[in-house]
Amino acid sequence: MLTELSTLHDEIERLIAELEALTGEEVPRLDVVANARLKLTRVSRRRTTLLETAIYPRLLESASAADLSKVEALRSSGKQSLIASGAHIGRWTLSEIGAHWRDYCAASHALRVSMRERIEQERTIIYPLLIGR
Questions:
Q1: pLDDT tens digits in sequence order for the chain, 133 residues long
Q2: HSE toward the beta carbon, residue 24, CA cutoff 13 A
Q3: For residues 68 and 74, what is the distance between their CA atoms, to the nearest angstrom?
Q4: Alpha-carbon distance 91 to 86, whole Å?
Q5: CA 103, CA 119: separation in Å to the nearest integer?
Q6: Can you count the helices (H) and strands (E) in the chain?
Q7: In the chain, what's the furthest Cα-to-Cα distance?
Q8: Torsion on CA atoms 36, 11, 127, 130, rounded to nearest 10
Q9: What count of Cα atoms within 13 Å lies in the side-chain half-sphere of residue 15?
Q10: What pTM was estimated for this model as a whole?
């Protein structure tokens, strides 16, 4: 599980960097942006599925009280992150991105920062717990 999660984290970070490079361009390449967003969404969904179906259940059944609290908080905040991500995707359709490129770039930056922070939280909390098993 740890290897799979780590691989997904690395892939998400690579795709975030790809999207970051695209949003640094003056003119949007909507087809390339759409493809990058789709790839990032798919990999992120695979990570969420792994967490929800395998990792969280395993950790929650055997974690200490202190670790249980951290895992539950991480799981809860993950659900909030999904809502925020869904709202971002819904708000920023390709036509909106094309019409308001600079605003999209700023909104995308904020979401990328949040995603990177989330991955770091997962690494900090989950990795040691999985290594300890």
A1: 999 999 999 999 999 999 999 999 999 999 999 999 999 999 999 999 999 999 999 999 988 998 999 999 999 999 999 999 999 999 999 999 999 999 999 999 999 999 999 999 999 999 999 996 6
A2: 6
A3: 10
A4: 8
A5: 25
A6: 6, 0
A7: 51
A8: 110
A9: 22
A10: 0.92
